[in-house]
Amino acid sequence: SLYVSEYFSQSAQKLSFYSWYGNAKLFHFRVPEDTVLLRWLLQASQGKGPECTSMEITVHFRYGAPPVINPLGTRFPANATVRPSYKISITLSSAAQNTTFVNVSTPAAGDWFIAAHLPEAAGRIEVKGFSTPCPYMFQADMFVLRLADVPVLEPGVATPQTVISPAKPLHVKVFVPKHAASMRLELRSCTTSEQKACAVRVVLGSITLPQSFQRIVTCTGSVNCSLALDSPPWEKWLQIVVESLGAANASVSVEMLASFAACRPGSTSSILNFSSLNQSQTGPRPGSTGAAGSSTLPTGEASHNVSSQRSFCLQNQPVVREDLDVVSVRYRLLNGPSVPVHSTSPTLLLLSLNTGMDSGGSLVVSLLLNKTSVSLANATVVACVSAASPVLSLNATRNCSTAFFQGYPLSLSTSSAEAMLIVLYPQTDDWFLSLQLICPKGQGECDAAEAKVTVFAYLTPCFNDCGPYGQCSLLRRHGYLYAGCSCKAGWGGWSCTDDTKAQSVGVQNLATLLLTLSNLMFLPAIAIAVYRCYLVEASVYTYTMFFSTFYHACDQPGVAVMCIMDYDTLQYCDFLGSVVSIWVTILCMSRVKKIVKYVLFVLGTLLIAMSLQLDRRGVWNMMGPCLFALVIMIAAWVYHGVKRRHCYPSSWKRWVFYLLPGITLAFIAISVYAFMETNENYYYTHSIWHVLVACSVAFLLPPRDKHKKPWAWSQKLTCRYQICQNDREELYAVT
């Protein structure tokens, strides 16, 4: 055999601590056909700074769709199917790099996904620039070894094959046609080169993670050996591996025969179905019965269809796939949302999810039984949702499994007429919904019975749009798109339905009131500024108080939210007002000339506005203006002290009762803001920050000029009368 090796690589990604699915870094690879060996090369590394400690990286693998993970141990939504992902742990200790290999023999061809993340996030809010987090990098490379000339078995034709040695197994494949109900593989005339008893092991199917459904049979002696598969995957190549269990140098010759049992489908489609495509969904369909929504056929034709159902192994219902948006699909039944279900053969619906871009959402299947349509009270409608091939024997097994896939069962009855299934990140494939009527006393009891089941099926990015306490985010890795829920207000889970740590409505209202009303502490600072004739500073404080109040009213994660304008605008204005307030306060304390002060006010505000636009959360956007203003203030105070030949400010009362308390409050506020805030205590620690900053401003504002009286600015409003009085005095003097 001719082996071909291939190598696929993707760029390294910086890992994040896990709080929601968006923190997991996703890698997407495509394994080619006829691959016999897949090897993952996983490389993890960390920085060299003192902040880098021992860390455990969790890596998840899955075939067909992104892995469904739950590192936080939260609850999934009701009716959601959860199958644990295959995962490994990589530990980074003293070594700066770790290399791990993961081998998969005979992997399934198609999409493979890897997700990597760090442990749970601590929840601490870090100010950008105060600390340097340790970088943890992760890169996944893929090596594949595939056969270039895999022998093909022709159905119904016995083909001689040879296993050269136990070290070199035989790889063959056979194509499974559509509507194949079962497959049978036979091994005949098994002989060895040493004329000893023949012993081989046959493996059907490929490995998929997290679950693998390979079928293995061991054949010994010269007796013919066979293996039967029910519901093999339709329109796919089935890999077959034959391994010799004999001596090391002995070859094995065997004849292989693959045969299929065809399933004759019956279809209820007609020319009327296709004409309904051009009609509105809300409009009447030709021959519709209103609420039932199914076509009404003449009596003779209906009786003919019932009598001919026994000759079919399934009944196809035509389904139209309607693409709505990214990872958003709706399935329309041409005969209406209600489908007939019988006991003689299953009713089959095809839900196509094979575009390669459908596995990043959630497949929702909702069933509703029309109770009046079931003539037998104890009858049950059994349904099964499966991928690659449908389940065709619901009346016999009820286990909802195909040859290589474990499906998802559903059940309807008169006592429980509704059922829902949510498949999180469905794998890329054709999905099938099979429905059949089951009677407890035997199928003869309900041969003539019929049930009407209303089917709603759709693909959505996030189930229920993550609910009222979550936000559905569309994530991207190169050209692949997938969705995840980011929860808030203490809610958690895949769809933000886990209320274990959820905040009550009272706590949410309290948080909103604290974060908004704490800004009213700027009122004393505004009053003092106006009293001391600092009108520009008072205007800045008013601006800051207004936008900080309404920004935090809009920023709340729960139901107590009020946004008077766009969120981004409110956030920008709040950050701008906060930094400019510090800027003008320190410049006001410097006691420079008014013209210089106002020029610095304008220039500083313009530069601060520019820097916030570049990086809104950078620590130097606040620290830079503060340090520059402090330099100006110290230089001005030194100038005044040298000029007056004594310390400035000269009054010890000014230092003890105003400056030292104001500076202390400012340092405490910075400490709370930079080192104490977490996601849990944010609403009261940030409220303390508001109070401390507002109080420090009130203490730090310098006293008014000695030649100005309190509220002296109001006297300027009588300027016109003052001019008139002066004119009269001048006229009197001339007279």
From TrEMBL:
<dbReference type="InterPro" id="IPR000742">
    <property type="entry name" value="EGF"/>
</dbReference>
<protein>
    <submittedName>
        <fullName>TMM8A factor</fullName>
    </submittedName>
</protein>
<dbReference type="Pfam" id="PF12036">
    <property type="entry name" value="DUF3522"/>
</dbReference>
<keyword id="KW-1133">Transmembrane helix</keyword>
<keyword id="KW-1015">Disulfide bond</keyword>
<feature type="compositionally biased region" description="Polar residues">
    <location>
        <begin position="274"/>
        <end position="283"/>
    </location>
</feature>
<feature type="transmembrane region" description="Helical">
    <location>
        <begin position="655"/>
        <end position="676"/>
    </location>
</feature>
<keyword id="KW-0245">EGF-like domain</keyword>
<feature type="compositionally biased region" description="Polar residues">
    <location>
        <begin position="291"/>
        <end position="304"/>
    </location>
</feature>
<keyword id="KW-0812">Transmembrane</keyword>
<feature type="domain" description="EGF-like">
    <location>
        <begin position="458"/>
        <end position="497"/>
    </location>
</feature>
<feature type="disulfide bond">
    <location>
        <begin position="487"/>
        <end position="496"/>
    </location>
</feature>
<feature type="transmembrane region" description="Helical">
    <location>
        <begin position="682"/>
        <end position="701"/>
    </location>
</feature>
<dbReference type="InterPro" id="IPR021910">
    <property type="entry name" value="NGX6/PGAP6/MYMK"/>
</dbReference>
<feature type="transmembrane region" description="Helical">
    <location>
        <begin position="620"/>
        <end position="639"/>
    </location>
</feature>
<feature type="region of interest" description="Disordered">
    <location>
        <begin position="274"/>
        <end position="304"/>
    </location>
</feature>
<feature type="transmembrane region" description="Helical">
    <location>
        <begin position="595"/>
        <end position="614"/>
    </location>
</feature>
<keyword id="KW-1003">Cell membrane</keyword>
<feature type="transmembrane region" description="Helical">
    <location>
        <begin position="510"/>
        <end position="531"/>
    </location>
</feature>
<comment type="similarity">
    <text>Belongs to the TMEM8 family.</text>
</comment>
<keyword id="KW-0472">Membrane</keyword>
<feature type="disulfide bond">
    <location>
        <begin position="462"/>
        <end position="472"/>
    </location>
</feature>
<dbReference type="GO" id="GO:0005886">
    <property type="term" value="C:plasma membrane"/>
</dbReference>
